[in-house]
Amino acid sequence: MARLASWVEPHPTGIYIPVADAWIDPSEPVPRAWVTHGHADHARGGHGAVLATPETLAIMDVRYGPQNGQAIGYGESVTVNGVSVRYVPAGHVLGSAQIVMEYQGERVVVSGDYKRRPDPTCARFEPVPCDVFVTEATFGLPVFRHPDTGAEIDKLLHALHANPERCVLVGAYALGKAQRVIREARDRGHSAPIFIHGAMQKLCDLYVAHGIDLGELVPAAGLKAADMKGAIVVAPPGAMNDRWSRRLPDPITAMASGWMRVRGRARQKNVELPLILSDHADWDELTETLTEIAPSEVWVTHGREDALVHWCMTRQIKAKALDLVGYEDEDD
């Protein structure tokens, strides 16, 4: 009896589809790449050709220069040497997609990174029943249960209003998390200008160009401390403790990340206001997704693989961890 999805080959550098001569999220340049989303551990430069959503291609253009890209919108499909390929929303960041492949009567879904809760900056995850589901497990431990998003943003706004002579400096990754923090704050009623680090500008502009209203954003470079009193300032995590941040008015340091659930990480990074805000599924969302999709097999690409594989096996779902390299969880 043939192995299920024998036409899909996991390799350390990515998932290879031999019949289509294509790689999914390869960690090194290849002639043909199918890319799930724009984070640098999934979207690298230097490929001969790239199949991705229009938004992901735009992100790659900003980061790596013009791509030899073929845009594929959500719900659209192409056929490559008999393999039907369709992209559906993953709910991770702008343009993020799951890659749905069908070949010889089998369906394999490579989900990339995903989350299940609503996000005003990207399309919501779409569950697709399949034979094999390839899942991440960034937060694949039962200890990881993300709190309500609105409650975390309210913590940020409360700290801001309670300290009008200070600012709140939010560390957030430049693609996805920064724009989500800004938009979520807007949705909770914060209409004042938000100040941003220069490294955020191009990607914030890209989000706005794709219809995501971020309100008034002001570059923080060159401003005096007094100009930013009582304001939200958003910067990459690496800028929070460097010379750039010393010009800010007595900042309350915040970090928006699912890893803020781990108190030791918050202390290590000198975070005064941890904001547990993740762009990945938590433990309950991972297991509920697998229950909903009901695949015959689950392949776990990266993260805390062992616990999720064990959960599958106790429910008579065949599961295995894939030994992929180059995937990081620090974009969260």
Describe this structure in words.
The protein is an alpha/beta fold. It has two domains: 9-143 and 280-321, Metallo-beta-lactamase, Chain A, CATH 3.60.15.10; 149-276, Rossmann fold (3-Layer(aba) Sandwich), CATH 3.40.50. Helix content is 21%, strand content 25%. The chain has helices at 54-64, 149-162, 177-187, 201-209, 263-268, 283-293, 305-313; strands at residues 9-11, 14-17, 22-24, 32-34, 49-52, 69-71, 77-80, 83-89, 97-103, 106-110, 132-137, 168-171, 194-196, 217-219, 232-235, 252-256, 273-275, 297-303, 318-321. The chain starts with 8 loop residues before the first strand and ends in an 11-residue tail after the last strand.
